[in-house]
Amino acid sequence: MKAFLMYPDRDFDMEQPLPSAAEALTQDLGLPIVLAAMAGGDAFLKEVATKAILGSTDDVDTIRYRQAILRDGLANPKVVRALYNLAGDAIQREKKGFWGGLSRHPGYMLHRSVEVLEMFTEMLRKLRGVAERSTGDFESVGFKRFFTMLITELSDEYFGEIGDHLRRLRFRGGVLESATLGRGLRGLEYCLRKPKDDQPGWFDWILGRGPASFTYRVHERNEAGARALSELRDRGINLVANALARSTDHILSFFTLMRTELAFYVGCLNLADALAAKGQPFCFPAPFPVGGRELSVEGLYDTALALSADRKVIGNTANADGKDIVVITGANQGGKSTFLRSLGLAQLMMQCGMFVSASRYAAAASSGLFSHFKREEDATMTSGKFDEELDRMSRIADRIRPEGTILFNESFAATNEREGSEIARQIVHALVESRIRVAFVTHMYDFAHGFEEENRGNVLFLRAERSESGERTFRMIEVLPLDTSYGEDLFRKTFGSEELLTDDTKQVSI
Asked: Based on the domain organization, do 358 and 393 belong to the same domain?
């Protein structure tokens, strides 16, 4: 049996390695806060969410397949949580009945396997019951197929056959086995036999020709004979014990995989509850195939900020359809980095089949998402800050593929503006020529103005809005970059007075 709740044609692989950009994305996009909300204190939910989000797919059909399943989950959260808990209970009960020291002994293997299968049968009956009660409330292809499989394969005939086998394997009437005699009268080819269900009546015993076998009884004090008899019994049941152990492993693997794939959706339910508690909206994005240049958002906000803030966060609207580059400028603490994080996190969430933190989100899938955010100075002093930036960029260049996306946050600003702008401009041009999409937060006017002068029509300019009084609205507006970094804001913050400001200090070139 297969759950097929993450992919339409294969299992979700928890052993898959995380992409090379995973560590940087986790740090730069504030992913730990989102993962904590999805986990709700459950370490396993966090592990699955980490694998699913950072190992997101670029296959649009898979994204839509998961979206449909998640929609069903949001409409029927109690059922999804009940299925997850049922699978978890089955796994925990199997672990409690395991005694590792005797696991290779045929008699123990058989006895334990029978007990585990009886427990699994009980859990499978409950699972079928949930499927029968709930199948009419679900619309997605994934859940419909899952419930149909449970109802069809876990039939009354199936449970009847399992019950009959388990009853026989208790051997309450003794063990019937056969063997052949080899050299030196040694027993060979031991085989467990199924006893006949129809026992002979008294009339057959009277008129019969006598017993078809001879009986040998071991004295109750004959320890050596008892051990020999036990060895003969183990030889006969060895093959059956192995086969039964494989059956329990098969059912256990089904429960394990089912729990793993459901864990992703339970994590999404937890995140939805957390966002709803904050009064924040979310939507299911419209994914487009890899290679397109679709990107338009309405009310997009930073999920991590929304979860950690004590007030409702502000969303942004932008349309970058057909654009290769998004350049984001504006005053400090205006929300530029927050917008960049919201963009990257929404892309990851979309590509793993989740909802996103926005009123509307439509984007082409990316072959890979990378981030290049500014870092603190190297405490070991093994390299300068600018050298470290170039080294990270070199590693990204080795791994990023065409149709990928990279997010820059104040990159290459550790040197002077002219040098940093030129290096940044050449890197961005090379990336765009390789069909890689770029979003760049920068204070370097020369860098931003260079793309304005080129005017190729493939650049979207966004600026963090600021009122005349210096107040930040934390909104991005579509407008060309200014030639000021608002030095008077820094002066006012530092000295707390405007009387010392002159015309020269009010406009500071970037």
From this structure: yes
